[in-house]
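Posting for a labmate who doesn't have an account.
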Amino acid sequence: MKIYLLLFCSVLLGACTQYQYITLNSTIYKANNQSFVWENDSVKVQYIFSGADCPITIQVYNKLAQPMYVDWKKSAVIYSDSSRLSLWNDETQINTVTNIGNVHSRNYTFSGAETSGVMNKQKQVSFIPPNSYVSVTPMVIRSTFFYSLPQKLKQRVPIDDIDSTKVDKYSFVPENSPFTFRCFLALSVTNSFEHPIYIDQPFWASDIIQTKISPSETFLENNMFYVSKATSAGHIIGGVGAAVVLLWILGWL
């Protein structure tokens, strides 16, 4: 009974979450109409935005017969208000694994724990050998919901093949898009960056779909990300769910 009650609360909470699926566009070429690609005789750069909160993945391919370098600290996402988000930060992530074991001997139980960890830190400068590439996912760049979308731009359209379900869709051009940014990269063929190469590409939200359909029920393309929020009913049910869990822990249910 307890488990069914918890599952019921979880289902209700999921049903009270609203999602926005944002399709990005740019002036640069899109491979298969998804991944953005910019290239010249020296370098090819691919940009992918797919998943929760607009995770940016950048792949830099060195087309030269000599090494190339990317300085992520000097590279940034630049928003429409001129604020910037560096694609490198001086932080170390620690991933740990704890193994716990128990040994039983007559009337005694001996417990022990062993913790092992790996420290990961993105390099400030990436070295790219000739005819090879580096691919990094620095961070997420947009996690907040889009509010006050213009009603005059709203359309009711079907989404995928989900039982002919219709959703609210808003379409934009660069001039009226609620989300625009530039991706600025600093590269060089010398590790001292005496002769830097700068790549500065614009992106904007061209479509926003608003629905209660969860990401597990739809398909995200490489130029599409999503954000979410709990509705008012979701907050209430979330509070009820937390109370149920507390009562269950205390043994009152």
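Reply:
Got it, the structure tokens are right above this. Residues 2-14, 241-248 have pLDDT under 50 and may be disordered.
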